[in-house]
Please model this.
Amino acid sequence: RRMLLRAVFGGLRTAAAVATTTSRRMSSCCPDGSIPALVEDTSRALSGTVSDKMYYVAPPAETTAGVLVIYDVFGFAGGRIKSVCDAIALAGFHVAMPDVYDGTDIAKEGGLGDEKAMAWLKTVTAWDAQSKLLEPALELLKSKGVTKVGAIGFCWGAYGVVKLSGESKILAGVSCHPSLRIGNMFFEESEETQLETAKCPLAFFPAGNDPEHYKDGTLAKVVEKTGNEYFVTDFPDMAHGWVPRGDTKDPNVARDVQKCLDLSTTFFKKYLA
Model:
């Protein structure tokens, strides 16, 4: 598995890692100290294809398991998010990532904390709207023969994963450096309220600066009351956003990007088998 992921990233330690800061201090859905936007890595060939506002990657062998990817606030071209899709596919899954932001992202809208940008983010976060934008990816996976679907979300994308779980549209959900507080910030939906609706096993991989309730058992108790597994692995050395945006020239970041993807695909193999 390690060799496969290294092949996807073109060498984890040499992937593009030029960070650009947003115009305002990182705030709102991302905790203080989060990693800023990462310039898209265009230096290597992608394994998948982009068509109709969708990135799709086929698995190396026939399978009926698929994974829906929901990106973070930096969107469809954010950092190495497409490389993340490639890595998940190589582990044995059909992968679909829709461009729910339709070509824009939080930075293009004005940056985290900007009033206009946050109003835009609220609009695309609202589940009535977001669920319709995710549906084409679910339909694409179905057209590829997928009968067992999981979802993985990054930062902002964790909100959609939990909502999909609540509607029984997935069999397993993974959230990397999750920002479920977006629901409380925009819609007065606490993290506990969101997770009370869980209808499948959920895994959480928080960074060192993510809230303690992901790590201390507070949210685990909520999910476990629904009869579903709550799996958590803490990444104390990492800052929020490290999986698609961390500088993988740093060996610790490279290590934990690898570890998080390994844990994610192992979790999916357990529940999408």
The CA atoms of residues 123 and 256 lie 33 Å apart. The longest helix spans residues 251-271. Confidence is low (pLDDT under 50) at residues 10-27.
